[in-house]
Structures are given as C-alpha cells and as structure tokens.
Design a protein that fits this description.
mainly beta, Immunoglobulin-like, four-stranded antiparallel sheet, three-stranded antiparallel sheet, 7 strands, elongated
Length: 143
Amino acid sequence: MSLIKWTPFFSEFDDMEETMNSMLPTVRGKQFGFTPAIDMYEDKDNIIVETQLGGINPENVDISIENNVLCLKGESEKKSEVDDKNYYRKEIRRGSFYRSISLPTKVDGESAKAINEDGILRITIPKAPEVKPKTIKIETNKK
C-alpha cells in the first residue's frame, strides 16, 4: 500500500504550482541557477542598479540595455561537487543566471557604466536628455 499526501486546504493549487514551475524557470531554478536580487534607485541624472554578485568573475557577466530594459546574464563557476558528502543544507547556488529589469524612465544606454567593488556590481545609467528636469528662468522687462 502506498502513502498519499493529504493536503486538505491547498489541493486546488497543485496545478497552479506546476504551471508556475513551467512558466518561471528562473524563479524555480530549473533553467538557470539563480536570479540575482537588485536595488534600483535614481539621482538627478542617473538610474543606478546594484546587485550582489560575490564569487562571480565580472568577466563572466554580460550587461545589455535595449528598449529601456536592462539585462544581466552570466555564470558562476561550478565547483566540482563530491557526491559522498552528507549535506545538511545546500543553499549556495551556482550555475547560470539571467535577470531583465524594466527601467522606470528613458535612458542613454550607450553611456552606461558598470563597476564591481567588493562583490557589488553597480550599473550607472544616465537618463535620456529629454527626461531630465529643466529649469526655466523668468525674464522681467523693466521700463
């Protein structure tokens, strides 16, 4: 006799989880190893995106901007795993990653710069000139 998993409250969601697994391979870790988390903020002239890529060689990371969408793609080195280890936890993710981020405003992707410092990748993307705030000086005519 086999055991049947009993889930009295969530049986309706079994199909939903299967669908999500097939639609979101980056989130579920099937196609890519992981999805890097990001921080995105702006200053007066730039959109800044930061992500932690500790342990990943910056030469293995590709950054592109197309139609105001930032794409990060890369690969962390896979260390040879020993099959005879008895893991209690295995949370360090290795393998390929991909992340696309819609930028909140038009940007000048040609002038973007990326710096890797202490495992933090910082991408600075200038805003497009037509988006930057403009100040208009009021002239007065005195007679």
